[in-house]
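Cross-posting from the modeling subforum.

Setting up a comparison between two proteins and wanted a second pair of eyes on the formatting. Protein 1 (sequence, then structure tokens):
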Amino acid sequence: MRDLTPEEADHLEVIIRELSRPEARDPKLNAVLYFLTEHRPEGRTWLEHGCIVFSQYYDTAFSLARQLAVLLAGEPVAVYAGVGKSGLLRGEHFASVEREEIKAAVKERRVRLVLATEAACEGLNLQTLGTLINVDLPWNPSRLEQRLGRIKRIGQARRNVDMLNLVYADTQDEQVYRVLSRRMKDKFDIFGGLPDTIEDDWIEGVERLEAMMDKYLHLRRQARDVFELRYQSTLDPDQHRWERCARVLSRRDVVERLSRPW
């Protein structure tokens, strides 16, 4: 705090004062609560389908979990985060538990609401949950896909899973998300149509972001063209379709094929 300029300190004081008002309430909390308890796809709320709520930040995830545990009286709320930070909330009581216990409770449907940080992005199977909410969005398309992959897995009971992304209106986040959302709706080839990460200097404005992503896509298409020029004449899509595979390759067959020079 000692390094703050007087102007920065004044801005922080205003923020603290506004957030401390009794009537102040995060609109994202209202949105999450609405979808958990009132929105009913297929005749059931998102809580009844089971829901994982993601945040990049532990403090945000824990604060939201604590508020939801109080508002959803009797509903156990899990916090899945880094080592030593995970636990279960029942009302205002928090008990620290191991992450393996949380995974087991979700699998056995004893817990249907999980607040998670990026610690849950990889290696976690939660296909018993049918909905996902991102309360904040990383500027990293692959991270969003990893989050969705926690529930969109073999064993998921729902034909389609629901995902809600929350951003504050009229912010840079909203502009970035609008670009990503539009592009993620497109069909991409095996080389992908979105970068793994978005560089900070791309976020100078929507025009620059669009231009840099177009440049990325152009380079990927060039790579695809080189691939097709090299292999198109030797590949027969019908012959190599997996669903028509007539035999299982032995280990020797696999080694022989992978050993062929390019």
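Protein 2 (same layout):
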Amino acid sequence: MYLPPQFEGDHAQAADLIRQHPFASLISVDASGLPFITHLPLHLEMAGDPDGPQAFTLLGHVARGNPHWRYLRDRPQAVVTFLGPHAYLSPKVYPDLARVPTWNYLAVHCTVQARLVEDAAAKDSLLKKLIGDHEPAYAEQWRGMENAYARKMLSGIVAFELLVMDLQCKLKLNQHRPEAFVTMQAIYENGNDADQDLGRWMKRIAKGSVNRLKG
């Protein structure tokens, strides 16, 4: 994606954004050469230094009837995108009138290498990680299912691991416009849920900038 240096986030920020907004777009190339997109939740696992190579792995699954798993099998390289909070920004935040509206947003794009997970026990373990992200209490109900039913449910999905080979994290919050940053933050902090989420990220970025200056 287009990523001016003033909006570039680090890997730790990318990990937080993925965990807070795990509903992703998985993008592959279909048999006709066009993008094929599946929207799905993914679980993030990390190993070692978050800034190190291939430190992120994303876990997920699709219905067996979804052809996307075949595209991952035949062409394992794919792209995953995560979109965080986003909101309109009025030019009224600036002290001068020679300004235009814009849209602020947070996003992570990952280039991944896919590996299908075929083993039933491994699929079950992967599912439990996803359940743990969203409804840990359901894990007990899943474990209590009859074996025949659990096997049927597992056979109806295809699970996969997506090893992140490269990623970009974009935090577009107009942080390069300090003359309007405080006004923008106040507007977002008093807005809807997405606005408030952006306000918290703005506070985090501002704090990080201050700490760098002190260092």
